[in-house]
Design brief:
The protein is mostly helical and 71 residues long. It contains 3 helices and no strands. InterPro entries: Trans_reg_dom.
């Protein structure tokens, strides 16, 4: 679990200026179940599309489409 004094207003001052997705991330990254699922996904080295989709669906994640053009 992250070490943060959740009662200290100063610890969350930055949340006044972030978009909804950023606020959601601040909440999600503190969730022990999410952190464990992510650890297991990373440990798989090359998770298949089904595993990635299940992970994204479980946690309500959406990723922007990547451009197929090379930079």
């Amino acid at each position: 679990m992250l070490k943060i004094n959740w009662r200290a207003p100063a610890a969350y001052r930055h949340t006044r200026k972030i978009p909804a997705a950023g606020f959601a991330w601040e909440y999600l990254r503190r969730n022990d179940d999410y952190r464990e699922d992510f650890r297991l996904l990373v440990r798989a080295k090359r998770p298949d599309a089904t595993e990635l989709e299940a992970f994204a669906r479980r946690w309500g994640l959406r990723f922007p489409a990547r451009s197929r053009r090379r930079a």
